[in-house]
Design a protein that fits this description.
Helix content is 32%, strand content 18%. It contains 8 helices and 11 strands. The longest helix is centred in the first third of the chain and has 14 residues.
Length: 215
Amino acid sequence: MQWEAITWQRMAEQLAGHLDDPDNAPEQGSWQRVGIDGAPAAETGVLAGRLADALRLRGRPSLVVAADGFLRPASLRFEFGREDVDSYLGGWYDTAALWREVFGPTDPGGTGRVLPDLWDPVTDRATRSPYVELPPGGVLLVHGPLLLGHWFPFDLSVHIRLSAGALARRTEESARWTLPAFARYEADTDPASAADAVVRADDPRHPAWTGVGSG
C-alpha cells in the first residue's frame, strides 16, 4: 500500500469531497451510506464526527450511528462467559437490528426514518431513542468494530488500522481479551482489502492513509 501522511481534518474533507462528487452522488431520493471500521482503540467515532461536520459545511445532512448502540442484551452477549471470543465476533452486535432499523430505511425507496441506537450497554436496557428523519440525499455514517464482515451495503468504507502492537497498547486492560478476536477478524475478513480507504493510526497524532480506492 502507498501511504500518504494526512491530518484527520483533511481526511474528513477529502472523504466529504468524494461523497459530494457528482460521479458518486446518490440518485434522487436516495441516501449514501458510509462505514468507518476499526477496533474500539481506533476511536472510529472521531473520524465519523469530523466527516459529519465536513458534510454539513457542504450542505449535506448526515447522521452518525455507533455500532455500540446496537449491542445485544448482556444475557445474550455473556451466554458463554464475559470473555468468549467467538461470542464477541458473532454474537455481541445485533446485526439484524442494524439491517432493519438503520440500513433498511436508507435502501432505495426507503423512508429515511433511522433509529440511531437501540440498547444501552451500561444500563443493559433499551435506549428508547426517537427515530431520526434523514432526508433524501443525506449521508448515513456508521462506525465501530467488525463492520466489514457482515456485507453491510456501504457506498464508501474506511478501515482504521492498528498494528498488533499498537492495538495491544491502546486497548484497555479489561478489554484485552478481545485482541484474539481482532486478529481473527484481520485474518478472516481482511478489512484492509475490503475497505475503499485504509488509515494507519498507530500514532493517532500522525495518521497516514491510502486515499479512496485502496480496496
